[in-house]
Amino acid sequence: MDKVINQLDFLQxxxxxxxxxxxxxxxxxxxxxxxxxxxxxKFFLGRTFDGHHVSKFRFDIPDxxxxxxxxxxxxxxxxxxxxPQYLGKYLGLLKDNDFSISLCYYIPQDFIGxxxxxxxSHITRNNIDTLDYEGFSWLTKEIDYVQPCIGAIVDNxxxxxxxxxxxxxxxxxxxxxxxxxxxxxxYALDVVAAWASAVRAKGILPxxxxxxxxxxxxxxAQKAGLYNYGIGFAVE
Length: 236
What we know:
Layout: H1 7-18, E1 19-21, E2 27-30, E3 43-48, E4 53-57, H2 63-73, H3 87-94, E5 99-106, E6 120-122, H4 139-142, E7 149-154, E8 157-167, E9 171-178, H5 187-200, E10 205-211, H6 215-224, E11 227-235
Parallel strand pairs: 9-10
Antiparallel strand pairs: 1-2, 3-4, 3-11, 5-10, 5-11, 6-7, 7-8, 8-9
Helix pairs in contact: 2-3
């Protein structure tokens, strides 16, 4: 794997792509390129496989809650598993049961996709109307915000997409969708590879993350041999 930054730096870069922050580095909003008005998670705990962690809080979380949570974070095992050891206590302190767990990946420079036989195209405002985008109707509203946006094309139909769902000065995060009837053909691997190449051409890191329960997205990451540097835990 190309050595760009260490796991802790990957994690911090991931967090900076997920959320907007204030001058105190407290979380403000979810950093969606098409709409960044949604409030950020109350608490985010990122853990790397080499034993580091980063905890972040939304700006309105009281200091006394932060202190208690940070004390627990310091006691989290270095040998990380999906669920934080003190998950229940975090939820109790924040009085919230809504949480998510995600696997965090980096797309390495030597990843070239499935087999290179897929026709891929950079989808923009200029060419979207020349293609059949049934199943991706949201593209007409968001196409300008999710660049680069790469599609796998079969008989002039977009069957799989990889696009930018988080954008920061250092990293873009990939979103991947494949029409159900076209899954299992390697299209997702090829659009991810082409998207990562387009992102890297900008001097930006291509990142990929998936919720722990999203088996299809994890299969893409595993087949692609993406570099899993950590796990994210967010209390919404």
